[in-house]
Amino acid sequence: MSLMDDWVEPSVDDLAAIEAESGLISAGVAVVDAESAYLRSGDEITARRLAKARATELSEELLVQRRRTLAHTASAVSRAGQVIPLIRRNASAVASGAA
């Protein structure tokens, strides 16, 4: 018996989820690459590269989370027929027109 005997092809939904997170996956690979370069040389250029890679990874993570939240909210709206606020604002901020 080999590991390939239990191999199951990814479903269309699995592939769509991977595609939706491809930016985050690429950013994670860039962080690992920058970390290894920094550990090898430790100079200022690789430190900046690492900082930029981490910032990119964070922004990609936020995009993925935002997409998940919007997808969840859209399905909740279609089920409940009402809008569910993502951000709570106090009444004075709304009255003054502040964001």
Descriptive report:
This protein is an all-alpha fold and 99 residues long. It has a single domain (10-96), classed as Methane Monooxygenase Hydroxylase, Chain G, domain 1. 73% of the residues lie in helices and 0% in strands. The protein is flat and about 55 Å long. The mean pLDDT is 82. Pfam families: DUF6284.
Structural class by helix and strand composition: mainly alpha
Q: CATH class, please? A: Mainly Alpha
Coarse shape = flat
Strand/helix succession: HHHH
CATH architectural designation: Up-down Bundle
Oligomer kind: single chain
Largest sheet at a glance? none
Count helical runs.
Answer: 4
Pfam families: DUF6284 (PF19801)
InterPro entries: DUF6284
What's the structural blueprint in terms of helices and strands?
Blueprint: H1 12-20, H2 22-41, H3 44-80, H4 91-96
In short:
The protein is an all-alpha fold.
Key descriptive features of the protein:
single chain; 99 residues; mainly alpha; Methane Monooxygenase Hydroxylase, Chain G, domain 1; flat; DUF6284
